[in-house]
Amino acid sequence: MRIALLTDLHANRQALDACLAHAARMNADQYAFTGDLVGYGGDPAAVLDTVMDYAARGAIVVKGNHDEATVSGPRRGMHAEAREAIAWTQGQLSAGQLAFLDTLPLTAELGNMLFVHASAHQPQAWEYVTGVAQAERSLRAAGSRMVFSGHVHAPSLYRRADDGSMGQHAPRPGAIVRIAPQHQYLVIPGSVGQPRDGNTAACCAIYDDGLRQLTYYRVPYDHGAAARRVIAAGLPIVFAMRLVEGL
């Protein structure tokens, strides 16, 4: 099974369409969307329609913090621009779309794989996994050999060896990572809809569980068109600038 890993779509229709087309060319036969389907971007309804269609055909979908905020209201500490985007997004979605977001699980499992937006350690706390300490906490809590998550808008990969030692790997786009069956791995593909590592290309990954191979990808798309959608919607211009600058 070849699983397309897509996270942090952030209502960016152009980036999502490009990543889905890429995944189809890579012969993906399963899809996993690990949260933050909405927020920041200018096309939340279109993105949700697409994800809901994939979910109806068996795709894995879990809830992110922006998805939760859209149905339950933003948490204290969410910055003002994000709150503005959440309020606007709420007005763009149908009752059915809001119900879909509301009923999404925080985690999903498939075989020895776990899917979660943030850390598997207290998923609803929305902890950012930005180093080996947080990665180890997530892997210990998950127990699964493969953990796929998002929340962090740059690609990263962590490994917990069978002796308990932790390592971090900087994935290179297009390079095959061999997955050793005795280790645990935490895979963060990077953001489809709002990458923040200085590269404007959308992020996604493919995991082949039969061959035990993982490949990260960067997918160019019309980020200018996505930025214009943000501006046309009247959303804070900072979200358009992030798309243009990849930051």
TrEMBL record:
Source domain of life: Bacteria
Gene3D superfamilies xref list: 3.60.21.10
One Pfam family matching this protein: Metallophos_2
Record-annotated Calcineurin-like phosphoesterase domain positions: 1-206
Coiled-coil ranges from the UniProt annotation: none
Protein family per UniProt: Belongs to the metallophosphoesterase superfamily. YfcE family.
Protein name (record): Metallophosphoesterase family protein
